[in-house]
Amino acid sequence: MKALTKHRELWLALAIVVVVIAVTLRFPRFSQPSNLLTIFNDTSILMMLALGQMVVILTRSIDLSMAANLALTGMIVAMVNAAFPGVPIPVLIAGCIVVGGALGAFNGILVWKLNIPAIVVTLGTLTIFRGLVFVISGGAWVNAAQMSPDFIQLQRGAFLGLPILSWFAIVVAALFYVLMTRTALGRSLYAIGVNPTASVYTGINVGRTKFLAFTIAGAVSGLAGYLWISRYVIASTEVASGYELTIIAACVIGGVSIAGGIGTVGGALLGALFLGVINNALPVINISPFWQMAISGSAILLAVVLNARGERNKGRVILKKAEGV
Amino acid sequence: MTDTSLHRQLPDRLDNPLRSALLGWQTLLVLVAVVIFTVNSFASPYFLNAWSLSDLTFNFTEKALIALAMALLIISGEIDLSVAAIIALASTLMGLALQFGADTPVLVLIGVGTGIACGAFNGFLVTGLKLPSIVVTIGTMSLFRGIAFIVLGDQSFKGYPASFSWFGQGYVWWVISFELVLFLVAAVIFYVLLHRTNFGRRVFAIGNNDVAAKFSGVRVERIKFILFCLTGLMSGIAAVLLTARLGSTRPSIAQGFELEAITMVVLGGVSILGGAGSIIGVVLAALIVGLVTFGLGLLNVPGIVMTIFTGSLLIVVIALPILFKMWRQRA
């Protein structure tokens, strides 16, 4: 069991390999490099979102508003693109990151300054953001015909044999890796999750760090907003509805502890990839896509049971007997 | 702001006794309800009418039934995000039983039974395996609704008997619907359970400090398990009412109910961190949410826009007392 927790990412990677092999045994084409790259590309957006969510969960918070943020930013950028097709795409992407970041900062400020629990704040902003999508669009859709060709084609271009969308995920993952392992902010995020009180004594501003975590999650959601809309070429109120739970599921499967302080970039990526592989495998082995939800639910439960076994020995030892552990 | 908490000292006496704080909260809720009621009456000529007001109650009774049990669960420091998925599964199994010719009593039994079973499953995972309830119920939420999707796919079950429909559409007397009566009875039961019994005191004790509660001889795990079963039971009842009212089952039934039920609970003054809250507050909050959505509906405001109001209401009502307190401390 100890080995399992020590190499949690390894085991998850192994689980993914097993699934791939199992499917390949029946359908050899599944594990062709081109198909594997397709799965990676399909999962790119979820991987980025999972990384954003991880940063928030590390601080013992949760962001339920990411999918709504994605939908709102996506609708804004789609409408801007439809109205002003001349605006260069990099400007739009930067705009998305800023808008998404601002929405995330709004969550963060409520958590930081007013000390409202994150789950309440983001439950509220989830409905507000989603409602705003409807308000600014008037319930109408923005479809492929209204979007400029550049807007749609950018992520479909290839660089070194990989679609640009995949490169987005790779770059974002690299940035998160640097953030989590090479910066003071990254250390603070872990410290807050492990022990908020001790963090205060160490000189970490807990509230401000949480605020930054929410802003980062928001910025990622904003970026994902553009990528999602240009990938599925439709912007509507229903975009990514309910997806906030898939993002959290990816984190949980990836070994990010909901109690805070535990989680790695590799884990979150693998968690997302696991869901991606399952989703891509189901149609191949001829299982109705309606099984998808139940399977990811079971995967979450299994992951949380396995993770809890590993975490149990850590933490407070003082009251162990009393807690009956 | 967080720095000040470091230097905070214990006051000579508690700033606000819990009782008066709760009373204050409830007074605020009553005021909000009255204001919204008045605004509604002026905004729409169709509002002040016995049948309109009766329709209004259908807006929130099912969610409010769940909110009653959810309040106890949240006070004990746990949460259940799977309630809407339980409705979907219970409704699907009822529909399935209908295909095999089940009659009304059997249907109700299956709906309620599924609810309890799902709640017990959540309770076992949380108390038996000692897992965090928020993750467990996110998982079971996908699992329960996932099973509904597996059974139904893109199909739906229809053709519920008239005697079954009565649970969701029937009236006990004049404009008083069965749903409303059931909700009022449930509210009284939950009020007594939480505020007038040993069990209720224990729920508060667990929410405030479960280790201390355990030292005091409270069977923390067992009570939490019971609370999960209760929440499942209420979800099962809500499934019966909703299915009977809609007359059909789709796997997407009751989507988003969990968030609305939790909104009612938190709006009702229950601390999301556990340990504090009252049933009266939850009932008032349910009424407010119902008034807001119904009033906006009469004004032809689309449902999705209403969610902005409920979402803002949730944040504002929680933020206001905190802002007020901060302002008072500064002054």
From TrEMBL, chain A:
Chief localization: membrane
- Topology with regard to the membrane? Multi-pass membrane protein
| Matches recorded under InterPro entries | ABC_transp_permease (IPR001851)
A Pfam family cross-referenced in the UniProt record is BPD_transp_2
Q: Which UniProt keywords apply?
A: Cell membrane, Membrane, Transmembrane, Transmembrane helix
Identify the domain of life: Bacteria
Please provide, in alphabetical order, the Gene Ontology terms of the cellular component aspect for this entry: plasma membrane
Q: Which GO terms describe its molecular function?
A: transmembrane transporter activity
Translocase keyword on record: no
Localisation per UniProt entry? Cell membrane
Residue ranges of the TM segments: 36-59, 66-84, 90-112, 119-142, 154-177, 189-206, 212-233, 245-278, 290-308
**PANTHER family in UniProt:** ABC TRANSPORTER PERMEASE PROTEIN YPHD-RELATED-RELATED (PTHR32196), RIBOSE IMPORT PERMEASE PROTEIN RBSC (PTHR32196:SF72)
What name has this protein been given in UniProt?
Answer: Branched-chain amino acid ABC transporter permease
From TrEMBL, chain B:
Molecular function in Gene Ontology: transmembrane transporter activity
Q: Specify whether Nucleotide-binding is a keyword of the entry.
A: no
Quote the subcellular location field of this record.
Answer: Cell membrane
Q: Which InterPro entries match?
A: ABC_transp_permease
Pfam families in alphabetical order: BPD_transp_2 (PF02653)
Q: Identify the main location.
A: membrane
The record gives the membrane topology as: Multi-pass membrane protein
- Identify the keywords attached in UniProt to this record, alphabetized: Cell inner membrane, Cell membrane, Membrane, Transmembrane, Transmembrane helix, Transport
Q: Where are the transmembrane segments?
A: 21-44, 106-126, 133-152, 172-194, 225-247, 253-272, 279-298, 304-324
**Gene Ontology CC terms:** plasma membrane
Q: Which domain of life is it from?
A: Bacteria
Query: What does the record give as the function of this protein?
Result: Part of the ABC transporter complex LsrABCD involved in autoinducer 2 (AI-2) import. Probably responsible for the translocation of the substrate across the membrane.
Subunit structure, interactors included:
The complex is composed of two ATP-binding proteins (LsrA), two transmembrane proteins (LsrC and LsrD) and a solute-binding protein (LsrB).
Protein name, please? Autoinducer 2 import system permease protein LsrD
